[in-house]
Amino acid sequence: MPELPEVEVVRAGLERHVVGARIDAVEVLHPRPVRRDHRGSTGFVAALRGRRIEAVRRRGKYFWLALDNDDALLGHLGMSGQMLLHEPGALDERHLRVRFRLAAADGRPLEMRFVDQRMFGGLVVSAGGAQLPTEIAHIARDPIDPEFDDDEFVRRARRRTSAIKRLLLDQGLVSGVGNIYADEALWRARLHGERPGDRLTGTVLRDLLGHVREVMGEALAQGGTSFDALYVNVNGESGYFDRSLDAYGREGEPCRRCGTPIRRISFMNRSSFFCPRCQRPPRARSARAH
Fold first, then answer.
1. Residue 3 annotated in active site
2. Quick check: is 196 catalytic?
3. Check whether domain 150-274 has CATH 2.60.40.3230, yes or no
């Protein structure tokens, strides 16, 4: 699933090319990607036709195109979604779901395409959502947001008995951190993902946030992480951060710090990867005396 760095790469690519563009036509080729829009496919198209794109914004793994009437086109890439830009007449992708015909700010025609093989992603027109769609107002800011509150994260995390990896994936506490980057940040911080939040010091949690930001910054610089053709930027290009991963996907390979083989364990219907020597599991809590 595309995580924050991948979605930010897409957001930045859209920002470079579609801000100032007018939406001349919309074609919904499959209804599932717009299933959450109460207007249905016809209403979705009508709400967008003729609107001008004023900005492209993001919170966590969601992105949205702010429109000139204060509405927004809100999107989530799901497992395999892509937002691609093409010159008109380019060959259609096999899994093309929604086509937007744009007139760019300089007047040239441009196509923006939502492509989604597995169709877990989606698009919706958010009424009055140009600044922040109400549909995602409950989602916390992400660690690379300048307004992210480190102190509040530390306070809330230290009140929780949940494992630190679960806390990193809790979108109400911190958004945008997915399975890949959680494992990478925990490896750098030498923390086992099952360490409870209430047994971590503020210093350790702030250090972990620093590693989260480092990992995401490096991933952004390399265009994100692509394990297959399902994640690409707006130009259809893959990211290369998978070549720099230290833990995720490296089961049985030597830890780059100590040489111990990386282990994989089941985690929330996914997998966690860690070094059993560098990232010691937590001790069991002592039973209370009766």
1. yes
2. no
3. no
